[in-house]
Write a structure and sequence with these properties.
Layout lengths: L74 H11 L4 E4 L6 E4 L3 H22 L8 H13 L2 H10 L5 H25 L7 H14 L12 E2 H10 L8 E9 L5 E8 L5 E3 L2 H10 L16 H4 L2 E3 H29 L17 H13 L9 H5 L2 E3 L6 E3 L3 H11 L4 H35 L3 H9 L5 H40 L17 H38 L8 H14 L10 H8 L4 H13 L6 H28 L17 E4 L6 E5 L5 E3 L1
Antiparallel strand pairs: 1-2, 3-5, 4-5, 6-7, 8-9, 10-11, 11-12
Helix pairs in contact: 1-2, 2-3, 2-5, 3-11, 5-10, 6-8, 10-11, 10-14, 11-13, 13-14, 15-16, 17-18, 17-21, 18-21
Length: about 700
C-alpha cells in the first residue's frame, strides 16, 4: 500500500515495535562498515531471549554470551547521532518573549522522531510508484525511508508550531502508518515465498470483512481495491493513510503473474471486533505471542476466554507483526533447510523460530527494505549485511544493527549466534552455488535451444543414446515449442482462411429474394459454394423449372381461352391444358403411367350440362374441355407450381444457398402479394421484414 507525500507525518512511535533498537555492538561477523547504525524502522530491542515489546533496551550479548561493553561508554555519542536523525533538540516558543529555546530530546522523543521521519519518507517513496523504483515496493520503501530521515527537522518545527496536535493523535496516526507499511512489507516478502505465509491472516481478515459488512460506517468504500487503486485514492484524497487502514482480503495476479493484495479500506481502525474461538486460534498461529493458547500455569484457554474484543486496528497490527516476526521467518527457515539439504548443519536448526526472536525478524524486515542493494537474487545473508547511507555523515552504515543480526543468528542456531551465523553462511554459499549452476545451465540451455530449429533435429538428440538427460529435456522442450509454433502458424492460417471464406460467402449468399440470411456461424468456401450450387441446379432446380415451363404454357393457353371467350379456333389450347395438367400432377408421381383410359377419365370428369357444351364446341372448334375444367386445371397447376417453388426455396436455404433464382409472378411463402390497382395483376410482394420485391 502506497501513501501520499503530502500526508502529515506522525511523531509518536507505533505500538508493538515501539522500543528503540540498542546501539550496535561487536559481533562475531561485523558489518562491512562498523559505524553506528541508523535504525531505519521501528522495532523492539530486547536482548537475545528477551520477550518482544518489553520496552527495555538491553545490549545484545556477544557470541560468547556476555555484553561486549557497557552502554555508557558510547551512549552519549549514540544519543547525539539519534537526536540529529530525529530532527535535533526540541524547540519550543515562549509566547511571552517570542523566543525559541532548545531542549535535548529524551530517548523516547528520539525514537518517535526517527520513526516518524522513516515512516513519512517510506510512504513518500511508495507514492512515487514502481516507475521510479523498478525494484518495486520494497525498493521504494527503502529509498523513501532513507530520504525521510533527512526531512525530520522540518517536520519537527512544523509539529512544534502546531499546538493543536496532541500526543495521542500522533500515536494513533503513527500506529496506522506502521500497520499499513507492515502490510505492504509482508505482501512484498510473501510474494517471494508463494504467499502461503498470508493464508491464515487473509482468512482472519475475511472474518473482519464479514463483520464489517454489517456496519455501513465500517468501511470507507464499498469496493475491493487493488494496490494501484489505493494509490489513486490517496492521491485524490479519498483515502487518508494516517486514519484509514488497508485490510488485505484476497490475492490477485499482476501482469507478471506475481501475487498482489486486494484491499478493503477501514474507515475507523478503533472500531471493536470480537473474535470467535476459531478465529482466535487462527490469530494464534500468526502471532503466538499476542494470542497465547495457554495460561502461564500451562492450562489452556477456554472458548469463552478466546472470545476477546479489541480494536480492529490493534488486531490487524498484531497479525501484521506476527506475519513479519513469526510466520514469514518460519517460511524462511524451511527454505534454508531445503537449500542445505544433507548438510549436517541442517539438523542443528530448530523446527520453528522461537517467538522470543520475533522482534529481530520484524526489525530486520524493515531495515532491509531501506538498504542499498542493486540488482536481484541477493541472498539473505547479503541482505543482513547490506548498508544504508547516514544522511548526516553521508557515509554507509549497516542497515541491520549488529544486535538484530545476532538475534537472528541465535534464532537459527537454537540460541547460539555463532552456530546460527555458520548455518546462514552455509546457506549463502549453497544459494550462490545454485544461482551459478542455474545460470550456467540456462546458458547451455539457450545455446542448445538456438541450435534446434526443426522438430527433426530435436528428435535426433532425443533418440541419440549418447545424449545426456539435460540435453534430452532441452530437445523435448524445443520440439514442443517448435510444434506449438507450427501448430500456431497453421491455426493462424486457418483462422485467416476462415475469415476470408466468411467474407466471400456473405457476398455470395446475398441477393436472396425471400429475405433469408445465413446463420451467424454458417459459411462455406467459394469452391464449396460453387459445387453446392451446381449440384442443386442439376438435381433440384431443373425439375422445378420444368414445372414452371408447364405452368407458363398452361397460363398462356388459358389466357388465349379467356381472350376468345371460349370460342377457340381449334382444340390445340385444350390439348396443351390437358397435357400440362397431367404432367404436373401424375407426371411427378414415381411409377405412375398416363394411359388413354386415364386421359378419358380426366376428360369425363364433368357434369351432364358440361358434356353437352363440350359436344357442341368439339364439333365447331375441337375444344374438349368445359369452362369449369379450364379453371380447375389452371388452379391445380398454379398450386402445384407454387408448392414446387416453396420446396425448392427451402432446399436451397437448407444447403446454405440463396434463393436468387425465383421466377416472375411467384410469391414466396409468408409474403403478401401486391396487385396493380387497375389490372389486379400480381406485380410483386411484401416480405415479413417489410421489404418490397417487384417483378
Amino acid at each position: 500500500m502506497s501513501f501520499n507525500d503530502n500526508a502529515q507525518p506522525a511523531t509518536s512511535q507505533p505500538s508493538g515495535d515501539s522500543t528503540m533498537p540498542p546501539v550496535p555492538v561487536a559481533t562475531a561477523s561485523p558489518a562491512p562498515n562498523p559505524q553506528p547504525s541508523v535504525p531505519a524502522g521501528s522495532g523492539p530491542a530486547p536482548a537475545t531471549g528477551a520477550p518482544a515489546d518489553s520496552g527495555s533496551a538491553v545490549v545484545a550479548p556477544t557470541p560468547h554470551g556476555s555484553p561486549s561493553q557497557p552502554e555508557h561508554e558510547f551512549g552519549s555519542v549514540a544519543h547525539n547521532i539519534f537526536q540529529a536523525l530525529a530532527g535535533g533538540p526540541k524547540r519550543t516558543l515562549d509566547p511571552e518573549t517570542g523566543t525559541w529555546t532548545s531542549t535535548p530530546l529524551t530517548k523516547g522523543g528520539i525514537a518517535r522522531g526517527v520513526i516518524a521521519g522513516a515512516l513519512a519518507g517510506m510512504f513518500a517513496g511508495m507514492q512515487r510508484g514502481p516507475g521510479k523504483y523498478p525494484g518495486g515496493p520494497m525498493e521504494a520503501l527503502g529509498k523513501g525511508g532513507a530520504a525521510g530521515m533527512a526531512l525530520t527537522q522540518q517536520q519537527r518545527e512544523q509539529q512544534v508550531e502546531d499546538a493543536k496536535i496532541k500526543d495521542q493523535q500522533q500515536l494513533k496516526a503513527a500506529t496506522i502508518y506502521e500497520t499499513n507499511s507492515r502490510s505492504m512489507l509482508n505482501m512484498a516478502q510473501a510474494s517471494n515465498l508463494k504467499t502461503e505465509a498470508l493464508k491464515d491472516q487473509i482468512g482472519l481478515n475475511q472474518f473482519i470483512e464479514e463483520q464489517g459488512n454489517t456496519d455501513p460506517q465500517f468501511f470507507a468504500s464499498d469496493m475491493v481495491h487493488s494496490e494501484d487503486e489505493l494509490q489513486e485514492g490517496i492521491k485524490s484524497g479519498k483515502f487518508l493513510p494516517g486514519s484509514h487502514l488497508g485490510l488485505i482480503v484476497g490475492l490477485d495476479r499482476d501482469a507478471n503473474r506475481n501475487p498482489v493484495g486486494m484491499y478493503r479500506v477501514i474507515a475507523d481502525p478503533t472500531a471493536k471486533i470480537t473474535l470467535t474461538p476459531e478465529k482466535y486460534d487462527q490469530a494464534a498461529r500468526v502471532n503466538p505471542q499476542q494470542f497465547p493458547l495457554v495460561h502461564k500455569d500451562g492450562t489452556p484457554l477456554t472458548d469463552g476466554e478466546k472470545k476477546q474484543t479489541m480494536a480492529v486496528g490493534d488486531l490487524i497490527g498484531a497479525t501484521n507483526r506476527g506475519v513479519s516476526g513469526y510466520t514469514l521467518p518460519n517460511e524462511q527457515l524451511k527454505g534454508f533447510k531445503s537449500i542445505l539439504g544433507t548438510n549436517p548443519l541442517a539438523s542443528s536448526m530448530p523446527e520453528s523460530i522461537d517467538p522470543k526472536y520475533s522482534w529481530a525478524w520484524r526489525t530486520a524486515q524493515k531495515d532491509i527494505a531501506y538498504a542499498h542493494m542493486d540488482g536481484k537474487n541477493h541472498t539473505f545473508l547479503e541482505k543482513l549485511n547490506a548498508t544504508i547511507i547516514n544522511p548526516m555523515t553521508k557515509q554507509p552504515v549497516s542497515a541491520v544493527p549488529p544486535n538484530v543480526r545476532n538475534s537472528i543468528f541465535a534464532s537459527l542456531g537454537n540460541g547460539d549466534p555463532v552456530l546460527g551465523e555458520q548455518i546462514l553462511t552455509a546457506v549463502d554459499s549453497a544459494q550462490k552455488a545454485q544461482q551459478a549452476g542455474a545460470k550456467s545451465a540456462a546458458e547451455q540451455h539457450g545455446r542448445l535451444m538456438s541450435q534446434i530449429d526443426t522438430p527433426e533435429k530435436a528428435d535426433a538428440i532425443i533418440n541419440d543414446p549418447n545424449s545426456t538427460d539435460a540435453e534430452v529435456q532441452v530437445a523435448t522442450a524445443a520440439k514442443t515449442s517448435l510444434l506449438g509454433t507450427q501448430k500456431t502458424k497453421e491455426s493462424n492460417k486457418a483462422a485467416v482462411k476462415e475469415e476470408t471464406d466468411k467474407r466471400v460467402y456473405a457476398q455470395l449468399a446475398s441477393g436472396d429474394k425471400t429475405g433469408w440470411k445465413p446463420a451467424p456461424n454458417q459459411f462455406m468456401s467459394e469452391q464449396q459454394f460453387n459445387a453446392a450450387k451446381q449440384k442443386f441446379g442439376t438435381q433440384t432446380l431443373t425439375k422445378t423449372q420444368d414445372i414452371e415451363r408447364s405452368y407458363q404454357m398452361m397460363q398462356h393457353a388459358y389466357g388465349e381461352y379467356l381472350s376468345a371467350k371460349g370460342n377457340l379456333p381449334s382444340g390445340a389450347q385444350s390439348m396443351v391444358a390437358l397435357s400440362t395438367h397431367l404432367a404436373t400432377t401424375f407426371g411427378n408421381v414415381k411409377g405412375a403411367r398416363v394411359t388413354k383410359d386415364m386421359i378419358q377419365e380426366h376428360l369425363g370428369a364433368r357434369s351432364v350440362s358440361d358434356d353437352a357444351l363440350v359436344a357442341v364446341r368439339k364439333l365447331t372448334s375441337g375444344d374438349v374441355l368445359s369452362p369449369q375444367q379450364w379453371k380447375a386445371f389452371s388452379d391445380l397447376i398454379t398450386t402445384s407450381r407454387n408448392l414446387a417453388w416453396d420446396n425448392t426455396v427451402s432446399n436451397a436455404h437448407y444447403q446454405g444457398l440463396p434463393a436468387d433464382f425465383l421466377p416472375s409472378g411467384y410469391v414466396p411463402k409468408g409474403a403478401i402479394a401486391g396487385r396493380d390497382p387497375k389490372t389486379h395483376q400480381v406485380i410483386g410482394y411484401k416480405l415479413p421484414s417489410g421489404d418490397i420485391v417487384r417483378f
